[in-house]
Amino acid sequence: MTAVATRIRPTNRMTTRRTIIRTTTPVIIMAVITMRMITTTSIAVTTITTATPMLMKTSKPSEERSAAATDAASSDDSAPLSTGMSDSEAAALYRLMTWLSPSFPVGAFSYSSGIEWAVEAGDITDVASLRQWLSSMLTDGAGICDTIFLTHTYRAASAGDEALLAEIAELASAFVPSRERLLETTAQGRAFIEIARAAWHKAVLDRLVDACESAIIYPVAVGLVSVAHAIPLAPTVHAFLHAVTSNWISAGARLVPLGQTDSQHLLADLEPVVADTARRALAASLDDLGSATFRADLASIRHETQYTRLFRS
């Protein structure tokens, strides 16, 4: 109940008095009952007021909200979002995470890169031997070589040097050590380009693919698509190596076998190896290409005639 000031004044005519309510709280007056008493001597005017406090809120009109949404939609693409990234940076991260996710349908789960034969031969028996095998693959085998090809594909495509791009694509295909590995990397490369082109079409990608003039292996395909969508090179290299390493660990986990915790420990242990491989690849020239993982190359060759197989390579 809000306090009400009431006044009494003698009068000989009907008078309607207004009661002034002074309060610091906004109110909604629900009912006012006024009693009028007419007399020749005096009139007592009594006003009873019932008040209900009301919470006051300021809402932006719909017109202002629409205008704000329009301004945000038409803002500069480089304007930072609340996440600290511009629109283009957020889109690049989203696409990179999608393309190099295990769920992206390039068929990576069906290839072991020779690990299946290495398990059968006894080269890989536990998490420690798998770590040693994968570390060698990263630093001296397919890991470093494929990443160098990705790096130089990216730079040639960015520079618009189609002649150099064709040479790199041809050399990358010729560098694959076995028929099964060639099947693996070209099938993944083809699927990667076709799916990315279907979902995120860019006309420039068609031109880059035509410039290669040969079969496109997986790392070359990643380089081409990244250039077409203006995704920076360094994040692309790191994401590519993470995807390849994760697939190798997944194959080993099913073949050894390993538990999920061991697999994650292994991925964590290989983090510095992956980072070092990325750093080396970004600084390497094509003359630095070279492989010293003879046992892994032999594994990919022997896998072709392995009696029982779960994987295609």
Q: What is the global morphology?
A: globular
Number of domains: 2
Could you give a short account of the major beta sheet?
2 strands, antiparallel
**Can you write the helix and strand succession as a string?**
EEHHHHHHHHHHHHH
Q: Alpha-carbon distance between the termini?
A: 84 Å
The pLDDT mean sits at: 81
Can you tell me the CATH class of the largest domain? Answer: Mainly Alpha
How would you describe what is shown here?
The protein is mostly helical and 313 residues long. It folds into two domains: 1-12 and 23-54, no CATH class; 87-301, Orthogonal Bundle (Urease accessory protein UreF), CATH 1.10.4190.10. 56% of the residues lie in helices and 5% in strands. It has 13 helices and two strands; from the N terminus they run E-E-H-H-H-H-H-H-H-H-H-H-H-H-H. Strands 1-2 form a two-stranded antiparallel sheet. It is globular, with a radius of gyration of 37 Å. The chain starts with 26 loop residues before the first strand and ends in an 11-residue tail after the last helix. The model is unreliable at 1-76 (pLDDT under 50).
